[in-house]
Amino acid sequence: MDAVALALARLGFLGRSPAAPGTVATVVAGIPAAWAVAQLPYGWACLVVAAVFFLSCWACDRAQRILENPDPGQVVLDELAGYLVTVIGLPATGPSLLVGAFFFRLFDIWKPWPVSVLDRELHGGLGITADDVAAGLYAHAATAFLLPFLEKL
Question: Start and end of every YutG/PgpA domain (predicted)?
Fold first, then answer.
């Protein structure tokens, strides 16, 4: 099970990207996954996002113990969970997916309160995943706010 958890936590090879693995995972895995999830009825989409959250908590917890690092950069399943929170319920258009990716990475890197508190105080897989989900909530709000203005351009 350790190999499965590590492969999931890394999203296969994406977590081994030599530069910005979180951003690579958001763009390469997150955008197509978000588009696919958006094709589902909203209730099913919420269930998929919840399942990714719980899977991320489990896989990231195992991966951080295997790698002996409390928040290894190569663990990127949490980015997928956070990005899906960013775009759930929004139209799956090119602008919304790209703007959502921008805002998600901004809030995930910046870690405004309470994202920073979750990052600092929670540990294990829940800690690795929770701050990304919180950043996703901020990014969702920012993306939803900006989209009507983008549609007028």
Answer: 8-145
